[in-house]
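quick one before i forget lol
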Amino acid sequence: MADLDSLRNILQLECRKGYSDKAVIGGLDKYLHRQAGLFRQSVNDPELLASFDKLKLADSSYSSYSLEERREWIASILEWLDRWEKARRENVCDVTMPRKLSAAPPKPCLPAAGDIDSPLTVLKGISSKTASRFAKLNVRTVRDLLYFFPKRYVDYSRIKPVCQLVEGEEQTIIGTVWQAKVTTLGNRPGTEAIIGDATGNVRAVWFNQPYIAKDLPTNAVVVISGAVGLFRGQRVFESPEWELLKDKELIHTGRLVPVYPLTQGLYPRQVRKWVKEAVDGYAGRLEDFLPQDIKTRCQLLDLPVAIKEVHYPSDFATLEKARKRLAFDELFLLQLGLLAKKRDWQESQPGNAFCIDQELVEKFLRSLPFSLTRAQERAFEEILADLKQSKPMSRLLQGDVGSGKTVIAALALLIAVSNRYQGALMAPTEVLAEQHYHTMCGYFSRCGMDKSSLLSKGEENVKYYEGIISRPFSIALLTGSLKSSVRERLHAMINKGEIDLVVGTHTLIQKEIQFSRLGLAVIDEQHRFGVLQRASLRQKGFNPHVLAMTATPIPRTMALTLYGDLDISIIDELPPGRKPVQTRLLDPRHREKAYRFVRNEISNGQQAFVIYPLIEESGMLEARAATAEYERLSREVFPDLRLALLHGQMPSQEKERVMRRFRAGEVDILVSTSVVEVGIDVPRASVILVEGAERFGLSQLHQLRGRVGRDKQQGYCILIPQTLSPEAIARLRLLEKIHDGFTLAEKDLELRGPGEFFGTHQTGLPNLRLARLSDVHSLELARREAINLFQRDAGLARPEHQLLRRQLSQLWCQEAEWS
């Protein structure tokens, strides 16, 4: 009997080949005429049989059809096959299928020697040298190997007779070895074998692997899996997977075959064999830490079953169930850990309740040259409500580029100082820290009197204000590039409480910095810092309030996952008068047009950014490099203008010098990498040209275009891709139409996955191996179950939660968190 599934595969291949009549050798007509009778015998239902006869496969003239006729005819056959498939599922018709491979069940495994946390060398064949290779992949123990998940799978489960092999598809045959010999393939020794079954023979070759010939004895039954190609008109398997069919479970062929990450010295077949040995010998020893009620409610597999199925799945449906369980584990443990940190932070000891001086708030707001938006007012009220509590604030302030987060932070810090506490603002770069320092000094100068001239020599990085609160107060800038003598003096002043507000980089969390009475810590661009860095800053004071800020728009569910220890406020409104940046995608051939536009803007007194994805030329990528292009632009395109170069590998002091010159208007065009993505504010910059735009994420490009048009003049963003693939063009076109950062974040997540820009790789957060932050349903399910469990047993003290408690301690590497 013929296999109607094969017919479907061939027709789908023909569709992919553009209806060119190349899906099978000799043409589709020849294949259909030969197989039509067999196909007909495979159907017993009278109604389906009548409709099948109307297709007239036995006397088709596909080769003479027009393109449209071919498309319609194949569509009609595929539609019939859908009906046949539905009937087969419902057992309406009796369909005879070809023999499927039924591998013998695995023999009972004797318990392997050693504990599940034993080094890999307990597995047969893994030497200390091989173990060191696995260590490069962070696999050191048997447990690590069980959690060393495949990166993808090859579907070798479709078993076919030799006569039905189709060019270009992954397929499996079961046949007898008629001959296997060492031969010359491409001027190097390899193996050639002839494999046959009752329907025909096929050639298989393995390049540079002559040793395989001796492992394929004549008359042995072998399973061959791989893609079939054509060589001189004959079908051939090129370097397929293979294994002898004995009374064992198949590993490399005839099934969904796992493909693992590799490093030098590790090979696919070896790794699969060792993983299989670990799964068979040790997976059953895994303690299932997930409470039974959660598994039942969420319909999750037991842990040992999930581990076995994710490595060697029975089928795609069971694979998805295994992935669901293991991804749930990751997200659930992540949420529990973050909830525990928030509990410990807020409940282990009381915080500092601030008195809110409403007169001070109104005085500060009146001094501003603008009014707060409704969204800013809402976020500020949420922050004030936290500051009034004796429970320390732990809040994330999310706002699009230019939405006005810094003014909210400045006012919150001022309230801390008015309560006789110190305040700190930590930024990811010196450029951004200096900008925040000058911005806040500008706010305070409007509100009170700048008395910095009264400070003694050596305090150039300190400003001093009167008339704002009931006493004079000071604000300092502390960065790593300061002279050691200046840094040491600032350290001493902070320790003595002589500095009220300090703005700096990660130097603020270094152990030599000790605050006298830190009451509020603000962390800007939160996704650049991690959970442990937040904790370090908190430890600088007596349970200070913490306000984290980010301009990276993250969908709420994702933010709850990444920042589960934080409450969230969102500024989703731009200040009035701020115009959306006009964005245009430009063909690389029209680059000169972009250069003319940039020159025109500069002639009108504006400045420009030109952004490149790489610092230096790379043989791996064709993207234009910032350093080389800076030289070219300076020499050939804008020789009469003032250009400067900025990138992340420059010394901090050099970066500071370049940015100061650009902000001061001494530079017309800043050629840069994405180091300018975050926060840099140059009011006269009106145009940003991004080369190799397809190499950036949508949200990253949105951040970049937020660098221009910040002073109420119109801003322009020109995107020039390096490659013009349809997918890249469609993605970049979204920036022309969408100006809302949260909408773009959703699109970016949908098209590219979460990626690094979402902050998934944070210091202190466990790695996610299988969980996808784009899977909103799984995120919400895991968070809901974590909150539910946390409310019932926050300390995981109940006997049924002890395995879970131990798993959390191991994962977060902080046993004290669960005391």
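fyi Residues 39 and 498 are 90 Å apart (CA to CA).
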